[in-house]
Amino acid sequence: MSEKTQSRKPRIALMGEFSAGKSTLSNLLMGSRPLPEKVTATRLSPVWMTYGNGAPYRVDVDGSTEPVSLDRLVGIPVEETMCIRIELECDILDACDLIDFPGISDPNMSSDIWERMLPEVDAVIWLTHATQAWRQSEASVWDAMPDAVRKNSILLITRFDKLTTEKDRLRVFKRVRRETAGQFAATFPISLLQALDAGEDFDRWDASGAGPFVEHLIGAIETLSKLAARSEVPLYNIPNGTEVPALKLAAVTPRRVDRPLNKDAPKRERPKAAPAGTMPATPGPIT
Prior knowledge:
By secondary structure, the chain is an alpha/beta fold. It has nine helices and nine strands. A nine-stranded mixed beta sheet has the order 4-3-5-2-6-1-7-8-9.
């Protein structure tokens, strides 16, 4: 499934436990729901999203392909399917591919179903639910991730609005940062649903946590694009100990990016974002 070096875009995986918010994040990044609502929470193989308008298809574990209908994904045999490929015309997929992984802790699905897709990955956006953030099952999977991937990945603490007091928000954020120190390029608290509901309300967009996260993601994609251009091999396959540049943690140029991520979106002046991986100066309730 490798592409030519000159045309290969970075591949970013969306990972986390079941119900951590991966489907909502896909909606936020692309401005539309990539899969019919009735199948987003079903038992699916990894879904590889790329730019285009071609028909969806499944890739078998032996490399063969066959067309599929998005309305009939439930019946696709996950044990025999490497991934489902779908094409969408949205700005973020013009810059990178997104691979939506199933929940890592689904008791009804063998980890083999998603582990065999990891060699296709350059970086990960890992989502962890704020009320039970960074469980041992998550830490165990992440500990096995190659350094080249971990250095260029992002951790999102989702549903951060469920923590209703400043004390709880600071406690969870500091604990997660402590337990994941040096394992991600940046960590951001976020309320994805509130980001979706923000519309043109820039203050609500930033307060949800989406503003700092998206600013960092834009810079991350730019850096990963340069890394991907150097090699046909995704970063997951780079042996530990090999020097691979990590993402710079300095905040990128502040700008509001409308849904979907729009490379032509007008810039908007606002207070400079906090450095990637830090809490807002006054982490009040996310509204």
